[in-house]
Amino acid sequence: METFSFDMPQAIGNLDAVDVLKEERAVALQIQSLEEYKKIISYEKKRRSAAEVIQTKRNINQLKIQLKSQRRSVRVATSPYSKYKPLQQAQTTASAPTENTNTSMLIEEN
Q1: Dihedral angle sign, alpha carbons of residues 13, 14, 18, 24
Q2: Whose CA, among 4, 30, 34, 108, lies 20 to 30 Å from 95?
Q3: DSSP code string of 12-28
Q4: Among 85, 78, 87, which Cα is nearest to 107's?
Q5: For the segment 3-62, what is each residue's pLDDT rounded down to a tens digit?
Q6: Both ends of the chain: CA-CA distance in Å?
């Protein structure tokens, strides 16, 4: 970023040696470029805020899907009409289980 500073008495004294019209155009161009830069910064700020809102909505939707899945699995596991029994009930209702019995009901912990 370019900084701009000047000494007022020296600037007034140097006006005789400077083409005022040319300097005025140069300053106008600098002002215009700074205004454009200001617009770009405001657009970027809006874009980032919109991206943050979108990401938050995605996270909320993923959380909702996960909660629905957990609730559904609990509902299915506790349903009296379910054809699959939970692991604890399957082991207590089975008569003298052997090592190979109910292998499909075992759950691996990661």
Answers
A1: negative
A2: 108
A3: HHHGGGS-HHHHHHHHH
A4: 87
A5: 767 777 777 777 777 788 898 999 999 999 999 999 999 999 999 999 999 999 999 999
A6: 54
